[in-house]
Every structure is written in structure tokens, then in C-alpha cells.
Amino acid sequence: MKNILVTRIDDRLIHGQVVTAWIKQYPINKILIIDDGLSRNKLMERIYKAAAPVGVEVMIMDQEHAKGFLKEAPLAKEHIMVLVKVPQVLERLLQSGVGFDKIILGGMGAKPGRKTFNKNVSANEDETECFRRIIDSGVEIYYQLVPSEKEVNIRKLLS
């Protein structure tokens, strides 16, 4: 299994907080964005790769390719941050045998069908139930916008 240091749900994917805070907090040298639609969009792929700091490789994969990649043996000094937009992607990876120590919930923006869940997180009923299933599987999910903020276990927010 690859060496995953940070697993984060954030619908903005690579943005200022990821680049300035998370990557500086952890020795991340690869960012894996898992998104089926984005994996087919070469223009957006170039934009995300350009947004990463020097020395950090950005890979964009669909769920099927990411599952295979994450199950491969780790390379020496390979430190990965996994970024997804919604929890269902991580639930599918967990079901396929990919493990995560914990999941950090960042931003999930408001859109039709979603209700405010916590600060800058909005979730619909399916996403909220997905959070519950992931937690029930043994993986904790913490809301944390930046590493300097205190983690908030979302288990408390779901009850």
C-alpha cells in the first residue's frame, strides 16, 4: 500500500490552504486527486499541476486507476496526499481494500440539495450517510480547515 500521509475531502482540491498549510505541515511530495470527470479534462489537469508547489508531483486519476495505484508498494521517500471532492470516493476505496488512518474534511460548498453541516461544509443526505458509514467502518473523520486548527471529530456533528 502506498504511503498516504493526508487524506482530505475538499471540493476545491488544490488551493491556497493546501499549498501553503498542508504541504508545509507534512513532507508531501505527491498529490493524488481522485475524480472521474477531472481525469478526462486535460486543460484542468494542466491547471492543477501548475498550482502545485515546485517539487510536488500532481497526479489525477479516476477511481479505478487510483484504487490500483494506491494498492501498489510504496516507493522510497514517496509521501502522498489524497484529495477528493466527496466522501463517496473514499468509501469506495475503503470497500476495495485501500486503507486510511483518518480523513480530514475541509470544504464542501453549498449547492442545491445540500444543507450546512459545519462552517464551510455543506452536505446532502447521501453524503451525510456516507460519513456515517465511513466512521462505522472504523475510520474517523475530522473537520480541520488548516493544520493549526484543532481537529473536530465529525462524529459529534452527526449525532
Can you walk me through this structure?
The protein is an alpha/beta fold and 159 residues long. The protein has a single domain, classed as Fructose Permease (3-Layer(aba) Sandwich). The chain is 35% helix and 24% strand. Strands 3-2-4-1-5-8-9 form a 7-stranded mixed sheet, with helices on both faces. It has a two-stranded antiparallel sheet with strand order 6-7. A hairpin with an 8-residue loop joins strand 8 and strand 9. Helix 4 packs parallel to helix 5. Keywords: Cytoplasm, Kinase, Phosphotransferase system, Sugar transport, Transferase, Transport. Its EC number is 2.7.1.-. Its main location: cytoplasm. This is PTS sugar transporter subunit IIB. InterPro entries: PTS_IIB_sorbose-sp (IPR004720), PTS_IIB_sorbose-sp_sf (IPR036667).
Explain briefly what this protein structure is.
This protein is of the alpha/beta class and 159 residues long.
What secondary-structure arrangement, pairings included, does this model have?
Layout (H helix, E strand, L loop, with lengths): L3 E6 L6 H10 L4 E5 L7 H10 L5 E5 L1 H9 L8 E5 L2 H9 L6 E4 L9 E4 L2 E3 L1 H12 L3 E4 L8 E2 H5 L1
Parallel strand pairs: 1-4, 1-5, 2-3, 2-4, 5-8
Antiparallel strand pairs: 6-7, 8-9
Helix pairs in contact: 4-5
Count structural domains: 1
User: Helical amount among residues, as a percent range?
Assistant: 25-40%
Q: Can you tell me the CATH architecture?
A: 3-Layer(aba) Sandwich
**Approximately how much beta-strand content do the residues carry?**
15-25%
Determine the N-to-C terminus distance. Answer: 33 Å
List low-confidence stretches: none
- The helix/strand order is EHEHEHEHEEEHEEH
Task: Quickly name the level 1 CATH class.
Answer: Alpha Beta
